[in-house]
Structures are given as structure tokens and as C-alpha cells.
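Sequence, please.
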């Protein structure tokens, strides 16, 4: 893995200044407030009171009920009271003419009350669901229980000033029908009322994850502490330093720089004072963000005019969060210690096991040196996967020896709000009960999964239920493993408990029945993804008589720029591979772009490349002139480097007066504008852009193929021009962009990567092809992911790879698609002699090691 430890480029500085979205800002504020109150909980959705912004009183409660809810409630009373025997519920003590203040009535009249609906006012949402519940109940339609479940959950949300009359009606009805609830029905049908119940996620309370609550509580312990912080990807670990920085100074260490930049973006939007240490040889290379600047170095001419002003980066007493790479930790640590007591600093090491799947790596010596020379007594090691405590006894003992009174804490979270099914290379769902006919092996798998409950996220819920009901209905399990023994109330019904019950059931099969269970379920198993056999690889329709049943040849859904593209739904896809260029070439070739079209595009690209070269040369001349004229430092350079640049530019422009320089600068800018106009975007016909209308017409026009959720890219002309102006990326990557495909790999074009990251962040790309460098800490939202055959993964690294998918806050159609079924074994069987365990005990110790640089 090539993890560059170099200074930030200007384009990277620019990206961290882009404000985060309002929803992201809400999360950041929650984390900040949650540090001092870990039980903080609120809901941003409006009751009628909060919508109108009027004071709460009994009289106003009655008035609003009569005016805005009474008609709907009376209608429910007339429709359902008699048939369902619930008339008593609607007998309310509501004054018909309550005395309310005239000022409040005027305030109400100033609102546009015609816009009131269930998306604006929470009471209307509850009334709508109540209506569906009662309607289904009256018709003896069993789906009333789904609405009952939804209503019971939504009523528990922390909505301010919910109308008490509406609240009472709903709770009374829930109480009346509670006796009719069939718990087995909920366990048998979780797909409808949990997995696809968008209301529960949309209207859920804002609160900290349990692992964040534990972390914020533990860090307040005054003693030296080492915290192993393990939680699934996409659950806020990387943002936790924003909360910690409310009390402590934080040094955030990340081997993967894009993780640090993501944190920086949130921190800056949250008005946190931050600094950067990337590629630092000493503390003099550290750079402050503007919010953290305290002093400036100013030089004046003999008339007193300022001729030179730059940030004094040596004064960092305002810094709250220092973001650094592994190489720069020691300089960053000494920098922070110059302004703070060590007890008031926390070192937060993100993904500490990066590179530890290698026997040797250039970063190993640096990691070891950081641990040996570390003076900070408070350390957090944060990852979705870390060795168990008993596996790293040497590291724990070393920490306790170095810091008197040191304590070790372990936070393990197994959040499971989503199902992200794993599919093998033939399109079948992967679950433990399909993996072996030998029940002893199944028990080994069950034990492994119970020890690594993060795997529950990758259990397909519908397949889990099929298994549970099959073995229970056919009496293949012990009685103490049945549903009725483990689910007593609706509070027990959630995705985590159902999947945990699946493991319990799998471990309680009557041993002599396992062969029957395994063979029957394998026989009944159907493909989740079926190859598109309606067209050939050129897009020509295959006549019905010539169509063949899909063969299990390991190539399920691989043609994602052509006939299998429609299977990629709801959002972007990531394709993880070692040889990124090979995958990129495959998808360009497989797109079957005609030769004349490719020639036309290549001519445009080559023409643009000529202009790009001229633009680059002029830009360098312009930079030299501006450096010479303005004598102005930039925050990404050290003073030594700045002085060197000034010296070089003054030599190049020796003899030119300021007036001559101004004329020359004006001429270069004019020439640049003229050249930039000549850059032409190259566009592809929609037929070659996956999941556009014309593309779907060619590749998936069969009536039986559902293309309603097929996801496509949204690449603007500006994006295309920006990419076309780059001279340091291959032409093939430019062609891929025209198809909505970006490439994440180690290369020299920082500008390309920043454009791709921006498009990925906005979910504008159809597909991202990424090298293993981006397995750790890629914070973009992906709905589907492919693991290439050429990936060599340890168990920990594979779990990290799976964590790239399903990171959004809604439940969509997710899949993880394996190109090599051998990866299944890597995931579901305990891995012996884990390299991460071995290396962590060696590197996180006081023993000096010497790195062996990989070829």
C-alpha cells in the first residue's frame, strides 16, 4: 500500500473550506453538544406548536385540536368506532371554545396554513398512519400490525409539544389492540416493517451512538488511558474528535490523508481551530488554519507600508485539533506540548492497523518510533476492526509500564440497522447456513460470527427469516430456540435481535437433522442477481427461442457498463481492485464504443492536451511573476521554501520594473483566457453512458426487467472541461469520466483526485474504481460494491472493504458482490495467525524495529 506522507497541496486546502451540508452540520453540532451531555436527544421535526412558534398552554392545545385536527379525528370516529368497538377512545375532554390570547391568534394567521400536511406537521403523520391501521384492522387485513409497529415507534420519538389529545388517542388505541398483536408475524415479516420502513429512519431522534457515549464518558477519566475504540464504519467514529475537543486538545493521526481532510472539513464548518502536520520534518513545517492563527510576521518598507505579511505558524496555543499523518506525529506532538500540558492532550489514532497486513512496510518503522517516543498519556486507537484484548497483551503491558496508573478500556459496538447482503460470483446470497454440509463447521462459523458481531450487517434479512421459519416449522431445532421463547414484546423486535436469533437458531439445530436442512435449503435457494440473457455482449436482442438459462460461470452481474448496469440501483458503486488500470481498460473495452466515436473523442482529447501543455507553461510563468511582484507567502509553504521561491522568481524576472511585470501579467492572463476557451468538452452519446435512457433502451428494454431504480451519473459540462484541462492523467481516465466512472488510485494528479472526491461526495459518479489504498476511510456513500479477484485481503482488511458500502443514513438496496468465492472463507472462518495481531504487538512496543522497504 502506497500511503503518501507529503504536504497538503493548494487544491486540498481549497476543498476543506467548502461548507458541509445542513444535515452534516446538525450531526456535528450533536457531537459537540453530546460531549457534555451524552444522553442528548432531540428531533428536528415539527409538532403544530413548534411549526407555529407559539407558547404552549392547555387552552391553545384545545384550540389547535379543534381547528386543525378535529375534523380528521371525527372522520376516524365515524368510520371505525362502531365496527372496531373503540368509541371510548374518541371521548375527549376538549373545550369547544377555549379562551386564547388574541396575539397568538394573529401569529397563527401570519402562517400559511394551507401547507399543513404530514411532511410538515408530525401530528398529521401520526393521524395518517392511524387511519391506515384502523382501515386494515376493520378489513381483517393482517398488515394492520405493520402500521401498529410504525405508530408505536414514532410515538416514542422526542417531538416537542406534541398535541396531548392526539397523543392520548393514539396511545389508547395501541393499548386496546396490543392483545391482538402476533409477535411471530413481526419476526416473519421484518422486511416490510423494519428494513423497508422508511418512516422509522426518516423521523428517528437525533442522538449519539452508544459507542460515542461510552467514548465521551471514558475520556473524562483523569488517569492515563489507552482506549481501543471499535465500531462499524459509517457510524461517526471519525467525527468523535470534534466532541472530544470540547475539553481536550486532540492530535488526530491518519495514515490515509483523505480521512484527515474529511475531519478537517467538518471541524472548520464547526468553527474548530485546527492545524495540519502533513509531510513534516520538524514542527516548523506545521501549518495553522486561519481560525487558529494568533500572530502574523509583518515586514514594512522605510515608509511604513506593509510589504510582506504571513502567518506565524509557530504560535499554536489556539489549536484545538491537530490533524497529521503518521510521519509527522512526533513533530505534531512536540508542537502541541509546547502550548499544553500532556494530560490535556489526547492522541486519536485512526485505523492504526493500516499496513499491518504486510510482513514489512516503510511505515512500520515510523509507527514504532511514534509509539516509543510518544509522551501523550491518553491514546485512542479507532477502527472498525482491532485485535481482541487478549491478542495484544504485549502492547497493553507496554503502555501500562510507560504510564503510571495507566488503564486500558475496550469499546465494541455492533450497530446493525441495515442489511447489506453479500452475493457470490454467481449471484447467490452468502449466509452461514449455506457454507457447509458439515454441522461441526457450521458451529465453528457460528462461534466466529458471535465473536465478530459486526458481520450481522452482511446477513440478508429476508434469507435469515426463511431459514428461521423453515427450521422452526419443520421441528429441526430445540424448543428453547423458538421465536416465542426470545421475543416477548415489540421492544424486542429489531434487526439486531432477529439476526442474533438467527445465529442462536443455527447453533441449536438437532445435529442429525442438519444434512436435511442444508440440502433442502440449498435446493430451494434462488439467485438474487440473474444474468441478463435478453441481449448479447454487443447489445443485440437474443430471440426468445435462443435464450438460455443463466449458467453458474462466476461472471454474475460483471457487465456493469452494458447489460448488467441496471442492477446498480439507488446510488454509486465502488469497484475495489489491486490492478485499477486493468479494470478500467476492461470497462472501456466492454462498453463497445465504436471506433469512429473513439477516434473523434481521442482527437479532441489530444487537441486539448496540446493546449493544456501551453496553459501549464504560461501558468508557471505567471506564478513566477506574481511571486516576484507580491513577495507573498502561502500557508502551505514553510518560510524556507517561500524564500527559495522568491529568490528563484526574482532571478528569472531580474531587471523588470513593477510596471513591466504588470504588463506581462496582463498579457499572460489574456493568453490563458484565449487558450482555455479552446479547450473543448468531449461528449459521449447517451447510449454509452450507463443507465441513461438510451443506454437502458439498448441493454435492458425487456418488459420483465425492472429499471425503475437504475442509477446513472450526473457529470456537468464544467466537470468535463475541468478534467479535460488536466495534463497529468491518462486519456483512458478522461474517457471513463465521460461514462460517469472515476478512478481512485495513487498518482501525481492531485487536481484530478479533488475533482473525483467532489463528484463522489455529491453522488454524481456512477462508478468508482478504487485501489486498496481507499479501503480504509473512504467516507462516500456507496450502494453497491465489487471486490475484485486480484485483491489479497486479510480478514480485517476484508471487513474494512465491506464497510465502504451502505454508509448512508437510509435503507436502500445494497449489495456486496464478490468476484472470487474464496473470499467467503476469508470472512466467515476464524483467521489464525493474523498479521495485524503480530505486527501490532511488535510495532506498538518499546522495542526498536527497523523497516524493510517493500519493492
Amino acid at each position: 500500500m502506497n500511503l503518501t506522507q507529503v504536504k497538503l497541496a493548494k487544491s486540498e486546502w481549497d476543498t476543506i473550506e467548502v461548507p458541509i451540508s445542513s444535515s452534516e452540520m446538525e450531526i456535528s453540532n450533536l457531537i459537540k453538544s453530546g460531549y457534555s451531555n451524552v444522553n442528548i436527544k432531540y428531533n428536528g421535526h415539527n409538532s403544530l406548536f413548534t411549526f407555529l412558534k407559539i407558547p404552549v398552554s392547555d387552552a391553545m392545545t384545545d384550540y389547535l385540536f379543534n381547528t386543525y385536527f378535529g375534523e380528521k379525528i371525527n372522520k376516524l370516529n365515524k368510520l371505525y368506532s362502531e365496527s372496531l368497538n373503540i368509541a371510548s377512545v374518541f371521548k375527549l375532554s376538549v373545550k369547544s371554545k377555549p379562551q386564547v390570547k388574541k396575539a397568538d391568534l394573529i401569529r397563527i394567521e401570519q402562517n400559511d396554513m394551507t401547507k399543513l400536511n404530514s411532511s410538515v406537521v408530525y401530528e398529521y403523520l401520526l393521524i395518517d398512519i392511524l387511519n391506515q391501521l384502523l382501515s386494515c384492522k376493520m378489513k381483517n387485513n393482517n398488515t394492520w400490525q405493520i402500521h401498529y409497529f410504525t405508530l408505536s415507534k414514532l410515538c416514542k420519538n422526542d417531538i416537542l409539544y406534541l398535541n396531548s389529545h392526539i397523543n392520548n388517542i393514539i396511545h389508547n388505541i395501541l393499548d386496546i389492540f396490543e392483545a391482538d398483536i402476533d409477535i411471530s408475524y413481526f419476526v416473519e415479516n421484518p422486511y416490510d416493517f423494519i428494513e423497508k420502513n422508511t418512516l422509522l429512519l426518516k423521523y428517528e431522534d437525533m442522538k449519539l451512538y452508544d459507542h460515542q457515549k461510552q467514548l465521551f464518558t471514558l475520556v473524562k477519566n483523569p488517569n492515563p488511558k489507552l482506549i481501543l475504540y471499535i465500531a462499524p464504519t459509517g457510524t461517526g467514529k471519525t467525527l468523535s474528535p470534534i466532541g472530544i475537543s470540547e475539553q481536550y486538545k486532540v492530535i488526530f493521526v491518519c495514515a490515509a490523508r483523505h480521512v484527515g481532510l474529511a475531519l478537517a472539513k467538518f471541524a472548520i464548518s464547526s468553527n474548530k481551530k485546527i492545524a495540519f502536520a502533513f509531510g513534516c520534518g520538524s514542527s516548523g513545517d506545521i501549518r495553522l488554519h486561519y481560525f487558529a492563527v494568533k500572530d502574523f510576521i509583518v515586514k514594512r518598507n522605510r515608509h511604513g507600508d506593509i510589504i510582506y505579511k504571513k502567518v506565524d505558524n509557530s504560535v499554536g496555543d489556539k489549536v484545538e485539533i491537530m490533524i497529521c499523518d503518521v510521519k509527522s506525529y512526533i513533530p505534531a506532538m512536540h508542537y502541541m506540548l509546547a502550548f499544553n500540558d500532556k494530560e490535556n492532550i489526547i492522541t486519536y489514532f485512526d485505523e492504526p492497523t493500516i499496513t499491518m497486513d504486510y510482513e514489512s512496510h516503510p511505515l512500520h518503522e515510523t509507527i514504532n518510533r511514534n509509539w516509543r517516543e510518544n509522551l501523550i498519556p491518553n491514546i485512542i486507537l479507532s477502527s472498525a476492526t482491532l485485535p481482541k484484548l487478549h491478542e495484544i497483551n504485549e502492547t497493553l503491558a507496554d503502555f501500562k509500564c510507560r504510564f503510571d496508573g495507566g488503564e486500558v478500556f475496550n469499546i465494541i459496538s455492533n450497530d446493525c440497522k441495515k442489511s447489506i447482503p453479500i452475493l457470490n460470483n454467481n449471484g447467490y446470497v452468502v449466509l452461514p447456513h449455506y457454507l457447509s454440509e458439515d454441522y461441526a463447521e457450521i458451529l465453528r462459523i457460528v462461534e466466529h460470527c458471535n465473536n465478530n458481531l459486526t458481520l450481522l450487517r452482511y446477513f440478508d434479512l429476508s434469507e435469515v427469516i426463511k431459514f428461521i421459519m423453515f427450521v422452526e416449522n419443520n421441528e429441526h431445532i430445540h424448543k428453547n430456540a423458538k421465536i416465542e421463547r426470545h421475543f416477548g414484546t415489540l421492544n424486542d423486535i429489531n434487526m439486531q435481535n432477529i439476526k442474533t436469533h438467527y445465529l442462536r437458531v443455527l447453533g441449536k439445530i438437532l445435529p442429525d437433522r442438519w444434512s436435511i436442512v442444508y440440502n433442502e435449503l440449498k435446493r430451494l435457494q434462488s439467485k438474487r442477481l440473474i444474468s441478463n440473457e435478453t441481449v448479447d455482449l454487443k447489445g443485440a436482442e437474443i430471440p426468445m427461442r435462443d435464450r438460455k438459462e443463466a449458467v453458474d460461470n462466476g461472471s454474475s452481474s460483471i457487465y456493469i457498463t452494458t447489460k448488467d448496469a441496471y442492477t446498480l440501483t439507488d446510488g454509486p458503486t465502488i469497484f475495489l481492485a489491486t490492478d485499477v488500470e486493468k479494470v478500467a481498460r476492461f470497462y472501456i473495452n466492454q462498453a463497445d464504443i465504436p471506433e469512429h466515436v473513439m477516434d473523434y473523442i481521442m482527437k479532441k482529447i489530444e487537441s486539448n492536451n496540446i493546449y493544456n501543455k501551453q496553459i501549464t507553461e504560461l501558468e508557471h510563468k505567471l506564478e513566477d511573476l506574481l511571486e516576484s511582484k507580491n513577495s507573498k507567502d502561502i500557508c502551505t509553504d514553510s518560510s524556507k521554501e517561500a524564500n527559495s521561491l522568491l529568490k528563484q522568481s526574482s532571478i528569472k524576472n531580474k531587471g523588470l520594473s513593477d510596471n513591466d511585470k504588470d504588463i506581462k501579467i496582463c498579457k499572460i492572463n489574456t493568453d490563458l483566457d484565449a487558450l482555455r476557451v479552446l479547450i473543448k468538452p468531449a461528449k459521449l452519446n447517451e447510449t454509452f453512458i450507463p443507465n441513461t435512457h438510451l443506454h437502458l433502451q439498448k441493454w435492458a428494454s425487456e418488459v420483465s426487467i425492472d429499471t425503475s431504480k437504475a442509477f446513472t451519473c450526473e457529470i456537468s459540462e464544467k466537470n468535463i472541461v475541468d478534467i479535460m484541462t488536466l495534463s497529468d492523467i491518462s486519456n483512458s481516465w478522461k474517457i471513463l469520466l465521460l461514462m460517469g466512472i472515476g478512478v481512485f488510485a495513487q498518482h501525481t494528479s492531485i487536481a484530478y483526485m479533488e475533482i473525483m472526491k467532489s463528484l463522489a461526495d455529491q453522488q454524481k459518479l456512477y462508478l468508482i474504481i478504487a485501489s486498496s489504498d481507499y479501503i480504509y476511510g473512504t467516507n462516500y456513500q456507496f450502494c453497491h460494491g465489487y471486490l475484485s479477484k486480484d485483491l489479497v485481503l486479510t480478514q480485517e482488511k476484508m471487513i474494512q472493504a465491506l464497510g465502504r458500502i451502505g454508509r448512508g443514513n437510509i435503507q436502500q438496496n445494497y449489495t456486496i458482490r464478490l468476484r472470487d468465492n474464496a473470499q467467503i472463507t476469508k470472512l466467515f472462518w476464524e483467521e489464525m495467525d493474523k498479521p495485524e495481531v503480530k505486527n501490532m504487538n511488535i510495532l506498538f512496543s518499546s522495542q526498536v524495529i527497523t523497516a524493510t522497504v517493500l519493492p
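Residues 476 and 510 are 6 Å apart (CA to CA).
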